[in-house]
Amino acid sequence: MLRQTLLNHATKAVGRTTAKSLLQNIVSSRTTVVTKTLLTKNTTFQGVRAIHTTRTSLFAAGAPDQHPLPTVNIAQDKSGAVTVHPPKESNYYRPHQPTTTLNSLWLRDNCPCPDCIHPSTRQKLHASSQVPLDIAVSSHRVLPEGLELTWSKGLDDVGDWEDPAKAQSGHKSLYPWGMILGSYGGTPTEHRAETRMNHKPILWDETMMKEKVLWLDYDEYMNTNEGLLKGLKHLQDYGLFFLKGVPTKDQEVVNTAERIGHLRHTFYGKTWDVKSVPNAKNVAYTNLNLGLHMDLLYMEAPPGLQLLHSLENSVPGGTSIFMDSFKAVQLLKQEHPEDYEILKTTPNTFHYRNADNHLHYNRTTIVVDPMNDALTVNYAPPFQGPLELPAEQMAGFYRALRRFAGYIERPDLQFRHTMRPGECMVFANRRVLHARTAFDPTKGNRHLKGCYVDLDMFKDKYRTTMLAKAEGKF
Ligand SMILES: [Zn+2]
């Protein structure tokens, strides 16, 4: 069904002969060839573009091998489980998990055909609750482009979710091998994370960061995809990079941030100024020493990225310090596992409370999120409120937090740099702690302009830029 639709769309766009050869390419070649051919033939036809995007993402984990094909077994019991066994020569063969088992409800629900997933919006056209619980595979074919299944039953009508055409039995689904063996389904977590480009961070200390620190040229970052990707990749791996040659214009940090994604507006404004002011509402706006911390932990969703652009810096002092909190988590877990457990389970209190505002949020210091293969740290001493714990839990928490702080404050785990005008630091606020030493405001001026971007915007840009690179678009 997918093959026929592809052919129809492509025929409208480029004529039948070309369409046929394109389709052959789609089926037999690797992603880059398909994309390049389709883009050259037709850059505007939406249907074709949508389809090649689909195919590209489905094949992102690697193109199917032509020979030999995986063997497939459909269980004849009530489970109807579909087991797929790629041969040793296949791209998808994994010695530690040679067989992938897929559930038939999951398969029907995730049919990728244009009747089930809208070709241009890429959104599902039915609800999971419509899949009959006793649906079964009535026949199957193992094809070079994927596994074709024919279904014993149509979809059910549930509430407003109804479609007479889909209530018929006999729907055919074609699952590209890259979809069922690569990115989803019965694949191991680490493989799924990899296809989402959510690979493990590289933990660093002072020695490593001195060697790996990225000073990226502003023009390269703003005007080339390669430059942008360099910065994004460093953010993913190390949680920070620096730009140099940024024009020292007041709102330039906005352009710098919007290269990644739209700004996160907070009650500090779209952008904010870090300079010493009288009667400051925030310790950042004084000349005092400001210890390692993260921003906005008293909000439900603290921003994932922070940018700080140096416009002026002629004062003695005011050095920036960065520290990889994930490194501190790793060391705590190895050396004091009981304290690691306490910080994973005990809520700390963060608040921002003065004349005009009252924000408040309780969260644990260490958050391990296996659903999203993510680690998050919450550490911000200046913004801690009184703990809201039973008295008997206090001592254990204070001991654990003190041990954690012991790693955070170790100079051999910190990277120091005094920002010069025209430099901008970009860092992951939920991973890399930042600090500033005290400075003397009577001996010159210090002015940084900052803003925030949500981590989702970064991940989005990183994945799409990586994919574009893989497809040979730059
Ligand atoms: Zn379908």
TrEMBL record:
<keyword id="KW-0408">Iron</keyword>
<dbReference type="GO" id="GO:0046872">
    <property type="term" value="F:metal ion binding"/>
</dbReference>
<dbReference type="Pfam" id="PF02668">
    <property type="entry name" value="TauD"/>
</dbReference>
<keyword id="KW-0560">Oxidoreductase</keyword>
<dbReference type="InterPro" id="IPR042098">
    <property type="entry name" value="TauD-like_sf"/>
</dbReference>
<dbReference type="InterPro" id="IPR010376">
    <property type="entry name" value="GBBH-like_N"/>
</dbReference>
<keyword id="KW-0223">Dioxygenase</keyword>
<feature type="domain" description="TauD/TfdA-like">
    <location>
        <begin position="217"/>
        <end position="452"/>
    </location>
</feature>
<dbReference type="GO" id="GO:0016706">
    <property type="term" value="F:2-oxoglutarate-dependent dioxygenase activity"/>
</dbReference>
<comment type="similarity">
    <text>Belongs to the gamma-BBH/TMLD family.</text>
</comment>
<dbReference type="InterPro" id="IPR038492">
    <property type="entry name" value="GBBH-like_N_sf"/>
</dbReference>
<dbReference type="GO" id="GO:0005739">
    <property type="term" value="C:mitochondrion"/>
</dbReference>
<dbReference type="GO" id="GO:0045329">
    <property type="term" value="P:carnitine biosynthetic process"/>
</dbReference>
<feature type="domain" description="Gamma-butyrobetaine hydroxylase-like N-terminal">
    <location>
        <begin position="99"/>
        <end position="156"/>
    </location>
</feature>
<keyword id="KW-0124">Carnitine biosynthesis</keyword>
<dbReference type="InterPro" id="IPR050411">
    <property type="entry name" value="AlphaKG_dependent_hydroxylases"/>
</dbReference>
<dbReference type="InterPro" id="IPR003819">
    <property type="entry name" value="TauD/TfdA-like"/>
</dbReference>
<dbReference type="Pfam" id="PF06155">
    <property type="entry name" value="GBBH-like_N"/>
</dbReference>
<protein>
    <recommendedName>
        <fullName>Gamma-butyrobetaine dioxygenase</fullName>
    </recommendedName>
</protein>
<keyword id="KW-0479">Metal-binding</keyword>
